[in-house]
Amino acid sequence: MKKIVVGGLLLIVVTALALLLGSALQVPLGGILFTGGVGVVLGIIKQGGPIARIFGFVIGFLLAWVAFGIQAALLPQTVGSQILASSVVLIIVTAIAALSRDKVPFWSLILGTATMVGAYMTDFENAPQNFLSESVNAAGGTLIGVAMGLVVAGFMNLLEAEVPDDKPAAPKASEKPANSNVLNV
């Protein structure tokens, strides 16, 4: 419970600071709460090691970014090209997770892909010809938010390690009770 409250409060502070800093520096950090939240999720889900989770996220993110670039440069702006690009990205993401036997977690690959698409899709649809400038702004602001969320998750994980739960842990099935030598008659 304390971990959640501290994490939520830290995310509020980080979001507010990022919005103030982004406004002062004229950096597009309007989606900081979304991307900070993505970073927290990436940091607190325990499936896969931290390096594999971050690697998967970055790979998915970059694949989506490359797909936008290919669409902008080579494909007509149609639903068919969106279907083609998204299908190719999802095939690659699925193959990476499958070939690594989920050591690069499928969910982190999808999270990275979805984050880039969520951050840039509207701008892309409005002006695909501005890919080189607008995608860099969207990606940069997004990755700043994700990194800040990962920092918040790191503090949450530290707090979890330092503060014992309110409830005592149940003994594992393989552990015997302290008085296991006593026969119950």
Describe it.
The protein is an all-alpha fold. The chain has one domain (2-162). Helices cover 74% and strands 0% of the residues. Helix 3 packs parallel to helix 5, helix 4 (79-99) packs antiparallel against helix 5 (106-126) and helix 5 (106-126) runs antiparallel to helix 6. The protein is flat, with a radius of gyration of 21 Å. The two termini are 41 Å apart.
Structure summary:
The chain has 185 residues and is mostly helical. The protein contains 6 helices and no strands. The chain has one domain (2-162).
- What percent of residues adopt helix (DSSP H or I)? over 70%
Record field, number of beta strands? 0
Shape field: flat
- List unreliable stretches of 5+ residues: none
Keywords:
6 helices, 74% helix, 185 residues
List the helices and strands and how they pair.
Layout: H1 2-25, H2 32-44, H3 50-74, H4 79-99, H5 106-126, H6 131-162
